[in-house]
Design a protein that fits this description.
Elements (H helix, E strand, L loop, with lengths): L17 H11 L6 E5 L12 E2 L9 E2 L3 E4 L10 E9 L14 E4 L11 E4 L3 E4 L2 E4 L9 E2 L10 E3 L7 H9 L4 E5 L3 E7 L3 E2 L12 E2 L2 H11 L3 E8 L3 H12 L4 E5 L10 H8 E7 L2 E2 L3 E7 L2 E6 L3 H19 L10 E5 L11 E9 L6 E4 L9 H5 L2 E5 L11 E6 L6
Parallel strand pairs: 5-6, 13-16, 13-17, 14-15, 17-21, 19-23, 22-24
Antiparallel strand pairs: 1-12, 2-11, 3-10, 4-6, 4-7, 5-9, 8-9, 18-20, 20-21, 22-26, 23-24, 23-25, 25-26
Helix pairs in contact: 1-6, 3-6, 4-5
């Protein structure tokens, strides 16, 4: 939830820069969910609530990196081939069971534990069999193809830090140090509303009355929340009445650490969400120097964090990805709120860029011998939801950038980096 603040963050009418807003969020938002122990198989996608420390080395013993023959390097001829007797066979999981002796070759298989002494492994392709002997190929360096104990992880090393979202590779790493269970944060509970008398849920099957639109925003937001591992309560569409909005927000705040609305946070006479939040709690900021999505509110209702997203479908998704997502990650116990931006070449001019505001342009990446090129989606309107389907991500133009010239290197944010 948001921490109490001793003074107002911004004066009414101010447009807050994105970096300032994100710094504020990082400072104000703390985890709003408990933790639980789960079996490793249930940990995928969850956020780690503890550091994971290796109890032992990984690998736990020296072993062969290839199929072949383990030998003492000092037994090898200084030039040409070496012929040695093959005295034992070692498979993975089956140690030699005796002390290795100088002058012998041990047939080994990938992953087989290597005894002390034989310090070099020849690949089977570089050898040939000669009865009970093996003829070893030419030059090789001492220690070749021998994996050392602890080569990957040393005992006592912290292999995973609390706050990391667990992918398949993190789950596998936890298994490699012997963990069967992990402590993870419980899923964040989020309540989602849409607002507007003109908005209709397509699930009702009643069609559209004149002047009405289908509610795409709620479905988009719920999908994005579930992609971040949240447990979502769909609370439908709120009427454009201040008392209805206040009652719904107050009730939802009792059971949900996060409340998200779409629409109703601008300055119109029928935009009641901001007034309802201010009556129940407080707004920390509500206007950002961004396009699309200037009216975006961050505040609190009771003990719940409140996010009021814009009403236009593209603005909803873009501001969710860049502003709401960090809030949700922090509330969920995560730490990594900065998505990676990749440098690509702009394949377009953009003369409309104004200094002083952050702008996001929907773009598709085109392969080119010189590197990827971003081609801007033709339609720029905040209501063109098809652009979010056709585009690969967002070109992000910072506040200090002016009109963009084709060929300039720009920051590109792939959608797949901010939808999970």
């Amino acid at each position: 939830m948001a921490k109490p603040e001793p003074k107002s963050i911004s004066a009414p009418g101010d447009l807050m820069a994105v970096d300032r807003a994100l710094a504020l969020l990082a400072d104000q938002v703390t985890p709003a969910t408990g933790s639980e122990d789960v079996p490793l198989r249930q940990a995928l996608g969850r956020i780690l609530a503890e550091d994971v420390v290796a109890a032992g080395d990984v690998p736990g013993h020296d072993n062969a990196a290839v199929d072949g023959y383990a030998v003492f390097f000092d037994d090898l001829a200084t030039a040409g081939e070496t012929r040695l007797p093959v005295t034992a066979r070692i498979a993975a999981g089956h140690p030699l069971g005796r002390t290795a002796r100088a002058g012998e070759a041990l047939q080994v298989f990938t992953g087989a534990p290597l005894p002390a002494g034989p310090d070099t492994v020849f690949m089977v392709e570089d050898c040939r069999s000669d009865g009970d002997y093996v003829v070893l190929g030419g030059a090789i360096r001492r220690g070749a193809n021998r994996r050392r104990a602890g080569e990957d992880i040393r005992a006592g090393a912290t292999v995973l830090r609390a706050g990391r979202r667990l992918r398949a590779q993190e789950v596998g790493l936890a298994a490699s140090v012997g963990r069967a269970r992990l402590r993870v944060f419980e899923p964040l509970r989020a309540a989602v509303f849409s607002t507007g008398d003109e908005v209709r849920d397509p699930a009702t099957g009643n069609g559209l009355a004149p002047g009405c639109i289908y509610d795409s925003n709620r479905y988009s937001v719920i999908g994005l929340l579930e992609g971040l591992g949240c447990q979502v309560t769909d609370l439908g569409i709120l009427e454009d009445r201040l008392d209805a909005v206040k009652d719904a927000l107050a009730e939802a705040a009792r059971e949900h650490p996060l409340l998200i609305t779409t629409g109703g946070v601008s300055m119109g006479e029928e935009d009641h969400v901001r007034a309802a939040v201010e009556a129940l709690g407080r707004i920390h900021f509500w206007r950002l120097a961004v396009k699309p999505g200037r009216p975006l509110a961050f505040g609190e209702v009771g003990g719940a964090t409140f996010l009021g997203l814009p009403g236009n479908p593209v603005a909803v998704m873009v501001t969710f990805m860049r502003i709401a997502r960090p809030v949700i990650i922090l509330l969920s116990g995560g730490l990594d709120i900065t998505p990676p931006l990749y440098k690509v070449r702009a394949g377009f001019d953009f003369k409309a860029k104004k200094k002083g505001r952050r702008e996001w342009l929907r773009a598709r990446l085109i392969a080119d011998p010189t590197g990827p090129i971003a081609e801007k989606f033709v339609a720029e309107g905040s209501g063109i939801l098809t652009s979010m389907v056709e585009a690969d991500g967002l070109v992000e133009l910072t506040e200090d950038q002016g009109p963009l010239v084709k060929g300039t290197m720009v920051d590109f944010l792939p959608f797949n980096e901010v939808t999970r």
